[in-house]
Design goal:
Chain lengths: ~425, ~180, ~300
């Protein structure tokens, strides 16, 4: 054990030093991985770095990410985003929490199209952060709801991480997807309940809006919502018509956004160029961090640290609940430093046998792991939602992480809930066909 | 020199954007083909079977192009994120020092990566490695984007290093300025 | 003491990985722990597309991959994926013996030494609707993932459709594809009954995984370690071929137990498919030149 703890400790110190001294996140990850490889293994660091980064960056499954980011950039530069908020105002203005729920509902819907939480945060946040700020909502809540609910991209199908888990453990991806639906809806409800309670207790922090809206106003507002509803229906519809895979659907989204903004007269040569260049910059930033994370994953694979830590837990002879508790803690700690998919890739081979020995359903465990990985998206220093939201809002990741803390705690609550009531996960897949 | 380097970064950014547009186009073509098939099977009961060969693999290659070639362009715009909580609290002198340090590490690391990326390109070329899909693409061609992009990135990192030594501001503007969020 | 990291593409439960674990144990025992092969399954260390080149470059000394992935590089690598050339294990073994020298020669050019190769179960046809004749395949959207599967789909009157592995369940559910060709293993492991209801055991071809070692890394081993690894490889190959046959029966049973309609192909369907197969064999022989014709001559002897 001690032969693993010292390297782990050194690697953490290096990571904190680099990040804390202002070195870019992508570069820091690459540097830590390179140092770990050089110091703790006998492998050829340079060639491995080049080949890992190449392998991790020409992936079809990632191609949807820049397209969705671009879609957000197109909408952000158009009247459509403002129209959508105006249109939703009469519908949500009476709810405690008002438009703050938009981040949650928006991410919930978008998660049904996108498999990644970074794409979800980037697309929804690009539109919602400025709109909500302009309407005087509390910044902490704007950032927190966005960071928290964008993690739904992982749980509500389609989901990249459920595919990775399904392939690594030979579970049915179709069943895993179905299993994610129940907990996904549960989390949406939990997030909304929190926002409602918070706004009830913090009335002075909520913006003044008309107290109540008539049904006439509501129906009048539908014309504002029309284009966005059309967009969502088009993207989801293209998948269910069988003419687009979930990745293809991102291109459909871009196409429809371009058409709609053309119709509203928002699409000019300048806005088009601005939009695609901005999307290129943002997606290149995320891709570079992903590349760094991929190399850190490989480096960790060569050092064997995560697998050793996992098997150390396995040797403690824990009961079922103790094991799940220990694993939750383990994943939260690992999730602070590695991205979620890496944690799954590096540890499933060790953890799955423990799970099966303990009599835990691997299908249920897949959902458990995804919720825990969702937490890792919003824990510093390495959390992808934090990175995306820092780049959108200009707020430091620690500020964003603090804003997201309540949602982190809700996710822990969700883990507790599915542990006590596993039917939340297993009922739908068991009643399939 | 300044103008020339900036031009270089912008060219990289524009190439990256063109690749992003390329991904959009090739995927949209395939979806369009699927739509024609969908309509054709609804009308005649038979799909035609239109495919853009290897579109997924080629989209992946273009993704690499979009991601790597625009690296320095994004750096110049301050898009690459860093944890600035602590450095914000330092004075101007301290910030200059952390910039010098960050750019130094960035130059070394991306330069190192660029060296091995070119080696990867060369090896793929020498062995004639091909992609596995319907269209056999020589792998070295898309790999050039990794090598070229990281090379440009290390040039821009060096540029930033020199700029911060000379106490000039390297970054064009804060990325979020156009969001109306501070 | 030497530790060799070995990346493999498939998960721990897969029979290929199980076989390789035994291989590693054999080597460890025979060398008294001098050579310790550490398996990193499911692409956790190196992803499948990069494994061959990682071994070639010596980034890892040893690795496993799906042989006909390389068929674009040289048609010889694709010989085990020509439809209806070798459709039972005895033929597949003869084909492997006939092609092994040339495959070894080609891989040697990349500094890769072949240790052993283990087949997947024979490829079968998964369809949404029942298929009794070639006519039933007409206009059916069939998954294609490389030049060979695309050709086969076209020749049998189906419509080739590109679908990436993770999108398969959704593609079936939404009608993007109606049919695919893969092994009973892959079908059972991905719980194919969740999205298709028919399995026709057409036994189209028997593709293989191959385990290669970097020549330089191998040369550096002591003589005793070399013979230990050779012996373990030989045993792994025999064991793997037997495991593959057991796997076929077991996985077809799983398909059946989960309510899939498992059938043997009608003579009409099989003849139609075989016609497509012989056309593809002829094309392959032309494309692969002298090497290919040499293999086919040995195989047909
Ligand atoms: Na999703
Ligand atoms: Na984290």
């Amino acid at each position: 054990m001690s032969d693993i703890l010292l390297p782990a400790f050194i690697i953490l110190i290096v990571l904190f030093t680099l990040l804390g001294s202002g070195v870019w996140v992508g570069i820091s990850l690459l540097a830590v991985a390179a140092i770990a490889m050089e110091v703790f293994t006998t492998s050829q660091t340079g060639p491995l770095m080049a080949s890992t980064i190449w392998g991790a960056s020409n992936l079809w499954s990632l191609a949807a990410l820049p397209l969705f980011i671009w879609m957000g950039d197109i909408l952000f530069r158009s009247r459509l985003s403002d129209d959508m908020f105006e249109g939703l105002q009469p519908w949500m203005g009476n709810l405690p929490g008002k438009l703050l729920h938009i981040n949650i509902i928006g991410c919930g819907i978008f998660a049904a199209v996108s498999g990644s939480s970074a794409a979800t945060a980037a697309t929804i946040g690009k539109i919602s952060i400025p709109e909500l700020k302009r309407r005087g909502y509390d910044e902490k809540m704007i950032l927190g709801t966005l960071a928290g609910s964008a993690t739904l991209g992982l749980l509500i199908p389609p989901s990249i991480i459920l595919i990775v888990y399904g392939v690594a453990t030979e579970q049915s991806i179709a069943r895993l997807f179905v299993a994610g639906v129940g907990p996904g809806i549960m989390l949406v409800v939990m997030f909304m309940a929190y926002v409602a309670i918070w706004s009830f207790l913090n009335k002075h922090k909520m913006p003044e809006t008309a107290e109540s809206f008539s049904w006439k106003q509501r129906f009048h507002s539908i014309k504002n919502l029309g284009p966005v509803v059309l967009l969502i229906a088009g993207v989801i519809g293209s998948i269910y018509m069988g003419i687009a895979s979930p990745t293809d659907a991102a291109a459909v989204g871009v196409f429809l956004s371009l058409c709609l903004t053309k119709l509203t007269g928002d699409l000019t040569k300048e806005s088009f160029i601005d939009g695609i260049l901005s999307a290129t910059r943002t997606s290149c930033m995320i891709a570079f961090i992903l590349a760094g994370a991929a190399f850190l994953t490989t480096a960790m694979g060569f050092t064997g640290i995560p697998a050793s830590l996992a098997s150390w837990i396995g040797q403690m002879g824990l009961s079922q609940y103790q094991l799940l508790g220990a694993l939750t803690l383990f994943f939260i700690v690992m999730g602070c430093f590695l991205d979620g998919i890496s944690v799954v890739v590096l540890t499933t081979a060790v953890i799955l046998p423990m799970i099966e020995t303990a009599g835990i359903d691997p299908l249920w465990f897949g959902i458990f792991i995804v919720i825990v990985v969702e937490m890792s998206q919003i824990t510093p220093p390495v959390g992808f939602n934090l990175f995306v939201i820092q780049s959108l809002s200009g707020r430091n990741i620690l500020v964003v992480a603090k804003a997201a803390l309540p949602f982190f705690l809700i996710l822990i609550g969700a883990v507790g809930a599915i542990t006590v009531f596993p039917e939340i996960v297993t009922w739908l897949p068991n009643n399939m066909n | 020199m300044r103008a020339m380097l900036d031009k270089l970064y912008v060219i990289g950014g524009v190439l990256g954007a063109l690749f992003l547009f390329g991904i959009f186009l090739i995927v949209l073509l395939q979806v369009g083909a699927n739509l024609i098939d969908f309509i054709s099977s609804a009308l005649t009961g038979h799909a035609i079977g239109l495919t853009i060969p290897s579109y997924a693999e080629i989209a992946g290659f273009m993704l690499a192009g979009a991601s790597f070639l625009s690296l320095p362009y994004a750096l110049r715009h301050g898009t690459h994120i860093r944890v600035n909580l602590f450095i914000q609290r330092l004075g101007a002198k301290g910030q200059q020092l952390t910039d010098i340090w960050s750019f130094l590490i960035g130059t070394a690391l991306t330069g190192w990566l660029a060296y091995y990326a070119w080696e990867l390109v060369l090896e793929s070329y020498e062995y004639g490695d091909l992609s596995t899909g319907l269209i056999a693409v020589p792998i070295w061609i898309p790999q050039v984007s990794l090598a070229l992009g990281t090379t440009l990135m290390s040039v821009s990192m060096l540029d930033g290093f020199v700029s911060s030594l000379m106490q000039k501001d390297f970054f064009i503007k804060a990325e979020n300025a156009d969001l109306g969020v501070e | 003491k030497d530790v060799w990291n070995m990346p493999t593409p498939y998960p721990d439960g897969n029979f290929h990985t199980v076989n390789i674990k035994t291989f590693a144990d054999d080597v460890r025992t025979a060398t008294n722990g001098e050579l310790d092969i550490k398996i990193h399954s499911a692409g956790s260390l190196v992803k499948h597309p990069e494994i061959k080149n990682a071994v070639r470059k010596g980034l890892v000394p040893i690795g496993e991959f799906f042989l006909s992935r390389l068929s674009n590089e040289n048609p010889v690598f694709g010989i085990d994926s020509i439809p209806f050339l070798a459709t039972n294990y005895a033929d597949a073994e003869r084909l492997w013996n006939a092609s092994r020298p040339l495959i070894e020669k080609q891989l040697q050019k990349q500094r890769l030494k072949v240790l052993f190769s283990v087949p997947w179960p024979p490829q079968g046809l998964y369809t949404k609707n029942e298929v009794k004749s070639l006519e039933d395949l007409k206009g059916v959207k069939m998954r294609a993932y490389n030049a060979l599967t695309e050709r086969l789909a076209r020749l049998s009157g189906a419509v080739p459709t590109q679908v990436e592995v993770p999108d398969i369940p959704q593609a079936f559910a939404t009608g993007q594809v109606d049919a695919m060709i893969t092994s009973p293993s892959t079908g059972a492991n991905s719980k194919a009954w969740d999205f298709v209801s028919n399995f026709v055991d057409v036994q189209a071809w028997i593709p293989k995984n191959i385990v290669v070692v970097n020549q330089k890394a191998y040369d550096k081993l002591s003589d005793s370690a070399k013979s230990a690894i050779d012996a373990a490889a030989k045993a792994a190959q025999t064991r793997g071929w037997e495991a593959s046959q057991a796997e076929t029966a077991a996985k077809i049973k799983i398909l059946q137990d989960n309510g899939m309609k498992v059938s043997t192909p009608t003579a009409e369907l099989l003849n139609g498919l075989k016609k497509a197969g012989s056309e593809m064999t002829a094309d392959w022989a032309k494309e692969s030149g002298a090497d290919g014709q040499e293999i086919l001559a040995t195989y047909n002897k």
